[in-house]
Amino acid sequence: MIELSHVTKSFNVGKSNQFTAVDDVSLAIEPGKLTILKGPSGSGKTTLLSLIGCMSRPSSGRIRLRGVRTAFLTTEEREGGFDISSLPERFLTEIRRTTFGFIFQQFNLIRGISALENVMLPAYPTLESHAAFQARAKELLRLFDISRHAASRVEWLSGGELQRVAIARALINDPAVIIADEPTAHLDSKLSREFMEIVATFKAQGKTVLIASHDPIAYDSQLADRVVEMRDGRTTADRPEP
User: Fold this and answer.
1) Residue 135 neighbours by CB under 8 Å, 6+ apart
2) CA dist 119 → 53, 194, 208, 241 (Å)
3) What is the domain-level CATH number for residue 82?
4) Residue 71 above 70 pLDDT?
5) Domain count within the chain
6) CA 102 – CA 210 distance, rounded (Å)
7) What is the DSSP secondary structure assignment for residue 153, as one 8-state letter?
8) What is the DSSP string of 185-196?
9) What pLDDT does residue 126 have?
10) Are 72 and 94 within 8 A, CB to CB?
């Protein structure tokens, strides 16, 4: 469970160009479900995802997580939930690494290194054996039918192949929550539908999935358990899917 209570995020506070990207949002995100944030560019979707994923802090309000598997928490905190809003950065880094897998709009893959090396990158700080997470990375590439490109530099790959590498990278640490920011923005309709088929496998594995999108292929999908509409930093409508 991820619970947001009156969360606001403002930038350039106290300056003439101050603006509020997320404005007093309260939201409960159920585990194992696909929740889609729908809205136009500038509606606050990406900022809200960054707050949920511990990549930035709210200006006010609280964000509580439950079921997080990190060493610094007590069993009671893991099961009952805890407030991440004021945690030190080293703890936020640990939560990002162990709990969340991120799929970015621009993929954010590292040019000049191979697809396999890109997939392995998030696992290096975990202190797991190199052989173990390399084997897992190879299995993920096989799962997404891109094993043949394991040794290829990512700049040589097509858009669909790049996305599959990005998805494999997001899964390398077996996260409980997948966060995807406009994942179909640079894909054609066929590849967008293929992405949603991959999302179906996430749900089948019991993962919580959060997608920000203004693509109807995403927000009109029968896979969506809930669609939350945003505009001007606020949630304007919230409908569970039939």
Assistant:
1) none
2) 19, 20, 21, 33
3) 3.40.50.300
4) no
5) 1
6) 10
7) B
8) TTS-HHHHHHHH
9) 79
10) yes
Structure tokens at 137: 């990375």
| All residues at 6 or more sequence positions from 52 whose CB lies less than 8 Å from its CB, including other chains | 2, 4, 29, 63, 179, 210
Instruction: Indicate the DSSP class of residue 172.
Output: T
Distance, in Å, from the CA atom of 136 to the CA atom of 142, rounded to the nearest integer, reads: 10
31, 1 contact by CB (below 8 A): yes
Q: Which helix (H) or strand (E) holds 140?
A: helix 130-143
Domain of residue 203: give its range: 2-11+20-240
Residue that has been written with the tokens 């358990």 in this structure: 225
Average pLDDT for residues 107-129, to the nearest whole number? 91
* Average pLDDT of the residues in 191-199: 90
The pTM score is: 0.87
Token readout for 48 is 């809200």
> From CA 3, how far away is CA 239, in angstroms rounded?
17
